Amino acid sequence: MSNERSYTLLERLGNGLVKENPIFKLALSMCPAVAMTNSVRNGFLLGLAVLFVQVASNVTVSILRRGIHERIRIPAYIIIIATWVSVSDMGLAAYAPGFYKEIALYVKLIVVFAIIISRLEVFASRNPILPSLYDGLGMGLGFMFGLMLVGCFREFLGAGTLWGFEILPFKPFFFWSLPPAGFFAIGLIMALFIWLERKFNAWRAKR
Amino acid sequence: MTRRALSAALAALLLLALALPAHAAGLVRAGAVADEHHITLELAGSLAAGWDWPGNVSVTERESPDIPLTVTGVEISPDRTELTLAVAEPVAEQGAYRVALRHVEIGGVGSEIERFLVRKGVLATLLSIVISAALIQNFVFSRYLGLCIFFGASGRKETAVGMGFSFGLVMTLSAAFVWAMYNFVLRPLHLEFLQVLTFVGIIAIFVQLLDTVLRKVNPFLFKKLGVYLVLITTNCIILAVPLILVGNAYDLWESLALAIGSAAGFALALFLMACVRERLELADVPEVFRGLPIAFLAAGLFALAFLGFSGMSF
């Protein structure tokens, strides 16, 4: 590819965090973003698992990209992802059992998160190892950032705490702790992202 | 062609019938959860005198056979044909519990170990699984799974119906396959850690298979469903259902009930959402909220409404 040079670490991180944020911009893999974000901690840990799987499978696919035949690429990707998900599943079960109980189902479901397979298809299968690593980092961090942003919003408003620490001595708005509030939180933040982008573009056009 | 299909269907039915929980002609005739801490057993005959419960009775939940519940006492009815077990841990009417009696002699027949599965009647259990999966624990509005497809395929009513139907088909078939795979291959070989890998494989193969078969057998249906079939592989629900049925140690019928219930719930959610989104297109939505953000808010309202089901149990 001619523009291989342009994929630097910073550019990929910015792309994953803001420009193509998996949750607010691409709107992929929103199940955990709705269900697991009633606290920052849950969002962070699940985000960490996704980050690991994304980076590992990005690198694996990038290494094997010349060996995988075009026709069987989807099953091959799924097997690679499932392998890394099993690794993180067993790792979490062994090292963080208390937390694992809460999110066990979602950790296993990382296999079918659309964001991971779409990054393999769009990026890792066409680029060398290093850019793929950066891309995995950017996307994983972007995902984690999205989960934690929604988590902050909901935990602060719902329970008056952040990461379990008390910030406000009362519960400002209990509604945000209820599970369905995840939909509202994401809808609002998504609208905010769109609004900010418009303002930014208008500001840039003016200059 | 139709005859071959018919015989295949018959063979499948026969297989299903074989898997029906055989009614054990054991020494325990019936069992039920009486209240939160008591299980009653009805015996086939009268219990021989001299049998005492300590060390001879064990109760476990079906899902976790390694963790015994604490039995605090056994009461024998005056005619010695009914046992009431007192259990320290709370037991639920919806649950399934394995009871084992050791060294008992009932109605003149002795037994080294007598096992019995206490649960509600088969039909009641199946119905409660279907309703719970479709409404009370609706996968989209109460468990928040399958959202990518949910937002992707709920733009039009027609798409929603097509997606719901093909999803139900794949879901039911793959649930049966996964159940067989887990119970006949993975568990006997102690390969449980491979479950994610095998389940995803089975689902992917199944989607591909259905795609190929439909293309040949019924091109009309294929034209209608073909697009959705590919999408199904990346649906969270299709993997969540196998994981749940394995986690709860369901038998084949319960697995099928779970699959059908969850497919019905998903189809219902898709259809409701499609109705709303068709209306939304005509509404005057603020510009930044157009498209996905407003769809999320609408889904949130639905989820709030479905929260009303959460107290129910069957």
Would you give an account of this structure?
The complex is a heterodimer of chains A (207) and B (314). With 207 residues, chain A is mainly alpha-helical. Chain A has one domain. Chain A is 69% helix and 2% strand. Chain A has helices at residues 9-19, 31-35, 40-64, 73-95, 97-109, 114-122, 129-159, 181-206; strands at 161-162, 165-166. Chain A has a two-stranded antiparallel sheet. In chain A, helix 3 (40-64) packs antiparallel against helix 7 (129-159) and helix 4 (73-95) crosses helix 6 (114-122). Chain B is an alpha+beta fold and 314 residues long. Chain B folds into two domains: 28-118, Immunoglobulin-like, CATH 2.60.40.1220; 122-309, no CATH class. Helices cover 52% and strands 17% of the residues of chain B. Chain B has a four-stranded antiparallel beta sheet, with no helix packed on it. In chain B, strand 5 and strand 6 form a beta hairpin. In chain B, helix 5 runs antiparallel to helix 6 (219-232). Chain B is elongated and about 80 Å long. The model of chain B has no long low-confidence stretch (mean pLDDT 83).
